[in-house]
TrEMBL record:
Protein name: Phosphodiesterase
TM segment ranges: none
Pfam families recorded: EAL, GGDEF
Domain of life: Bacteria
CDD domains the record matches: EAL (cd01948), GGDEF (cd01949)
Domain EAL as annotated: residue spans: 286-535
SMART domains (alphabetical): EAL (SM00052), GGDEF (SM00267)
Record lineage: Bacteria, Pseudomonadati, Pseudomonadota, Alphaproteobacteria, Hyphomicrobiales
NCBIfam families for the chain: GGDEF (TIGR00254)
Coiled coil: none
Listed InterPro entries: Biofilm_reg_signaling (IPR052155), EAL_dom (IPR001633), EAL_sf (IPR035919), GGDEF_dom (IPR000160), Nucleotide_cyclase (IPR029787), Rev_trsase/Diguanyl_cyclase (IPR043128)
Residues of the GGDEF domain: 144-277
Length: 549
């Protein structure tokens, strides 16, 4: 048996050539060029019957086989026509060794089904593994001659969850089309798994060509996808690795590209990163932190600090509880490093409950008029048991519900919005205060303020930092305060670092101030002393003292 699938070509919905195997040009010469009509390559397709078959396949019909003209003594040839995400594809084959054209075509169809993804028409994971290993075996020398690009769609899950799996499938098809459109000779695309794609690049000047292609792919995903009339924005993050420099076999090279992809995601997504050894070191450090974090709570390495909340002119109204981790070998690890790890590993329910209980117990040592604010992670809303946890802690500690303020960020409202709003409403009914933290830095929507009666808006320190000199920041902060007060919501300004910032905010009737200038985060034992002498400190701050307290 002998057959070939090298004569492969793809056409858009107008039947113009978009992509083709290099060998096709060798067979049909100048007729093969991007944009050429299918009948310029296969003139026999001008026949009305064939055109009807093409249209039927294009509009969702089953694949079809069309016999091609042949010269005297030439083996029978046929074209297998199948639908793709953006048009049709053609696989040309010929029969040898006594096989009929029909038998040979059946082999071609089975081979295509075994090596291509049904949804996107790209080559599948099985084919990817084979081609990657073949590419690595074919190269030699110290310089990289093969590039692997791992591509992951940013925010695909959100589209799938909000618009449904049908929209998700359409998005994958459109994404595959954009990837295919960015390819040149020597580059082949694969759907690896889910919303993960890969491109193998051979015979190119590296690393320049891989970086060029990665840049083209990132740019291609900046334009919105339109699905059922809805504009959907989904970016792409890309990890690049070169063989044999970063891996002499397929598994090693895939691991390197995956580590680079992780770096691209960590660096903000919508970008490409090339593997280097330092990435591996950082990943190993992260894995060590992950293992340590799982036992940090039981070893007593986690603790809380409390930052004062000041109501002008001189009243301490409460403290915000801030989670800290003192690693026995590394020292203090910033929350921005370990909290995402805890969220990803499903540890936030346990840690969050501990934080809530410790903060509430500490609040019992203060005057009964003071509140304690505790931050909630979006991950704590996923378990569905948050309200039960809060109610159990309040009952066990014996603290009044109105002394507890739970702080959320807008990311909580972006995922499973209806469920999370219901959870917040339940907490509100229990008498717990709810604060919207970092207001203005995410996807601030007035609908949040309309749909839920927040007790407090916290203005992010980004707008406070240059408040003394920047008129835009002043206008934004003033507008937020006017909006909140019009809705009966209290306003807290975060990140107050100077007396000038404090005076401006007080003049504009800001309800509460928080920041190192008025009070740094304190250990639990130091909070009582701060409460006793804080009025004097606040008065000095308002008088213009530039000393941090």
């Amino acid at each position: 048996m002998a057959y070939t699938t090298e004569l492969l070509s793809f056409y858009d919905r107008d039947f113009n050539l978009t992509h083709y195997a290099t060998r096709l040009k060798g067979v049909y010469g100048g007729a093969v060029a991007p944009g050429a009509a299918v009948w310029e390559i296969y003139p026999s397709f001008l026949d009305a019957r064939h055109r009807d078959e093409f249209l039927r396949v294009l509009h969702g019909g089953s694949p079809t086989s069309i016999d091609l003209p042949r010269s005297s003594g030439e083996a029978p040839r046929s074209a297998f026509v199948f639908a793709t995400a953006n048009g049709v594809g053609i696989i040309e084959s010929s029969a040898h060794g006594g096989r009929s054209a029909a038998e040979e075509q059946e082999h071609v169809i089975l081979l295509h089904q075994a090596t291509h993804d049904v949804l996107t028409g790209l080559q599948n994971r099985r084919r990817f593994g084979e081609r990657l290993q073949q590419a690595l075996e074919a190269i030699g020398g110290p310089k990289p001659k093969a590039a692997l690009l791992q591509i992951d769609l940013d925010d695909f899950k959100a589209v799938n969850d909000t618009l449904g799996h049908g929209a998700g499938d359409t998005l994958l098809q459109l994404a595959a089309g954009r990837i295919r459109d960015a390819l040149q000779d020597g580059e082949s695309a694969y759907r690896y798994a889910g919303d993960e794609f890969a491109v193998i690049q051979l015979g190119k000047d590296q690393p320049a060509e891989a970086e060029r292609l990665a840049g083209s792919l990132v740019d291609a995903f900046k334009e919105p996808f339109v699905i059922n009339g809805i504009a959907v924005f989904v970016g792409s993050s890309i990890g690049i690795a070169f063989g044999p420099e970063h891996g002499a076999d397929g598994e090693q090279l895939m691991k390197a590209a995956d580590i680079a992809l992780y770096a691209a995601k960590t660096d903000g997504r919508g970008c490409a990163r090339t593997f280097n050894r330092s990435m591996l070191l950082l990943l190993e450090q992260r894995e060590n932190l992950r293992r340590s974090l799982r036992t940090a709570l039981e070893r007593g390495e986690l603790y809380l600090e409390y930052q004062p909340l000041i109501r002008p002119p001189s009243s301490v109204i409460g403290f915000e509880a801030l989670l800290r981790w003192r690693h026995p070998e590394i020292g203090i690890i910033p929350p921005g490093v370990f909290i995402p790890i805890a969220e990803a590993d499903g540890l936030m329910d346990e840690i969050g409950r501990w934080v809530l209980e410790q903060a509430c117990r500490q609040a019992l040592t203060w005057p009964s008029s003071l509140t304690v604010a505790v931050n909630l992670s979006p991950a704590q809303f996923l378990s569905g048991s948050l309200t039960d946890t809060v109610a159990q802690v309040i009952d066990a500690v014996g603290i009044r519900a109105d002394r507890l303020e739970l702080e959320i960020t807008e990311t909580v409202l972006l995922e499973k919005t209806i469920d999370n709003i219901d959870t917040l409403n339940t907490l509100n009914v229990l008498g717990i205060r709810i604060s919207l933290d970092d207001f203005g830095t995410y996807y601030s929507s007035l609908s949040y303020l309309k749909n839920f009666p927040f007790d407090t808006l916290k203005i992010d320190q980004y707008f406070i930092a240059d408040l003394e000199t920047d008129l835009k920041s002043q206008t934004i902060v003033r507008s937020i305060m006017n909006l909140a007060h019009g809705l009966g919501i209290s306003v807290t300004a975060e990140g107050v670092e100077t007396s000038a910032q404090a005076r401006w905010l007080i003049k504009e009737n800001c309800d509460c101030l928080q920041g190192n200038f008025l009070g740094r985060p304190l250990g639990a034992e130091a909070t009582s002393d701060f409460i006793r002498r804080s009025p004097l400190r606040v008065v000095r701050a308002m008088e213009g003292s530039n000393r941090a307290v």
